[in-house]
Amino acid sequence: MVVLEAAGGMSQGMMQFLMLGLILVVFYFFLMRPQIKRQKELRKFQSSLKRGDRVMVAGGIYGKVAEVAETYIMVEISPNTEIKVARGNVFADAESAASK
Fold this sequence. Notes:
Layout: H1 2-47, E1 54-57, E2 61-68, E3 72-78, E4 81-86, E5 90-93, H2 94-99
Antiparallel strand pairs: 1-2, 1-5, 2-3, 3-4
Protein backbone atom coordinates (compact mmCIF):
# COMPACT_ATOMS: atom_id res chain seq x y z
CA MET A 1 0.00 0.00 0.00
CA VAL A 2 2.80 2.41 0.88
CA VAL A 3 4.58 1.58 -2.39
CA LEU A 4 1.45 2.43 -4.39
CA GLU A 5 1.07 5.76 -2.58
CA ALA A 6 4.69 6.62 -3.32
CA ALA A 7 4.24 5.74 -6.98
CA GLY A 8 1.05 7.82 -7.15
CA GLY A 9 2.82 10.79 -5.59
CA MET A 10 5.60 10.48 -8.11
CA SER A 11 3.21 10.60 -11.07
CA GLN A 12 1.40 13.62 -9.62
CA GLY A 13 4.71 15.43 -9.19
CA MET A 14 5.64 14.54 -12.74
CA MET A 15 2.28 15.84 -13.96
CA GLN A 16 2.86 19.18 -12.19
CA PHE A 17 6.32 19.40 -13.74
CA LEU A 18 4.88 18.75 -17.22
CA MET A 19 2.18 21.39 -16.70
CA LEU A 20 4.84 23.93 -15.68
CA GLY A 21 6.82 23.07 -18.80
CA LEU A 22 3.71 23.47 -20.96
CA ILE A 23 2.99 26.88 -19.42
CA LEU A 24 6.55 28.01 -20.15
CA VAL A 25 6.31 26.86 -23.79
CA VAL A 26 2.99 28.67 -24.26
CA PHE A 27 4.43 31.78 -22.58
CA TYR A 28 7.39 31.74 -24.98
CA PHE A 29 5.34 31.34 -28.16
CA PHE A 30 2.59 33.84 -27.31
CA LEU A 31 4.52 36.55 -25.47
CA MET A 32 8.27 36.40 -25.91
CA ARG A 33 8.65 35.27 -29.52
CA PRO A 34 6.48 38.04 -31.06
CA GLN A 35 8.30 40.65 -28.97
CA ILE A 36 11.70 39.35 -30.12
CA LYS A 37 10.48 39.44 -33.73
CA ARG A 38 9.30 43.07 -33.37
CA GLN A 39 12.63 44.10 -31.83
CA LYS A 40 14.53 42.44 -34.67
CA GLU A 41 12.41 44.28 -37.28
CA LEU A 42 12.93 47.59 -35.44
CA ARG A 43 16.72 47.14 -35.35
CA LYS A 44 16.67 46.33 -39.08
CA PHE A 45 14.60 49.47 -39.77
CA GLN A 46 16.90 51.65 -37.64
CA SER A 47 20.02 50.35 -39.35
CA SER A 48 18.56 50.95 -42.84
CA LEU A 49 17.67 54.63 -42.31
CA LYS A 50 18.95 57.01 -44.95
CA ARG A 51 18.74 60.70 -45.74
CA GLY A 52 15.24 61.78 -46.79
CA ASP A 53 13.32 59.02 -44.96
CA ARG A 54 10.28 60.27 -43.08
CA VAL A 55 10.28 58.96 -39.51
CA MET A 56 8.58 59.21 -36.14
CA VAL A 57 10.85 59.54 -33.11
CA ALA A 58 10.22 58.94 -29.41
CA GLY A 59 7.64 61.38 -28.13
CA GLY A 60 5.64 61.27 -31.36
CA ILE A 61 7.68 63.86 -33.27
CA TYR A 62 7.51 63.43 -37.04
CA GLY A 63 10.27 64.56 -39.33
CA LYS A 64 12.62 63.80 -42.19
CA VAL A 65 16.10 62.32 -41.77
CA ALA A 66 18.65 65.02 -42.60
CA GLU A 67 21.85 63.26 -41.54
CA VAL A 68 22.74 59.74 -40.44
CA ALA A 69 25.69 59.00 -38.15
CA GLU A 70 26.67 55.83 -36.34
CA THR A 71 25.04 56.68 -33.00
CA TYR A 72 22.64 59.50 -33.83
CA ILE A 73 20.36 60.85 -36.53
CA MET A 74 19.60 64.48 -37.33
CA VAL A 75 15.86 64.84 -37.96
CA GLU A 76 14.42 67.91 -39.67
CA ILE A 77 11.10 68.63 -37.95
CA SER A 78 10.37 71.89 -39.81
CA PRO A 79 12.28 74.02 -42.33
CA ASN A 80 15.67 75.01 -40.85
CA THR A 81 14.93 73.16 -37.59
CA GLU A 82 16.81 69.94 -36.88
CA ILE A 83 17.04 67.86 -33.74
CA LYS A 84 19.70 65.33 -32.86
CA VAL A 85 18.15 62.00 -31.88
CA ALA A 86 19.81 58.79 -30.72
CA ARG A 87 19.41 56.13 -33.39
CA GLY A 88 17.53 53.89 -30.93
CA ASN A 89 14.81 56.53 -30.48
CA VAL A 90 13.59 56.35 -34.07
CA PHE A 91 10.62 54.03 -33.83
CA ALA A 92 8.69 54.03 -37.07
CA ASP A 93 8.40 55.00 -40.66
CA ALA A 94 6.19 58.12 -40.68
CA GLU A 95 3.87 56.80 -43.40
CA SER A 96 3.18 53.52 -41.59
CA ALA A 97 2.86 55.26 -38.20
CA ALA A 98 0.33 57.77 -39.56
CA SER A 99 -1.81 55.04 -41.11
CA LYS A 100 -2.23 53.15 -37.81
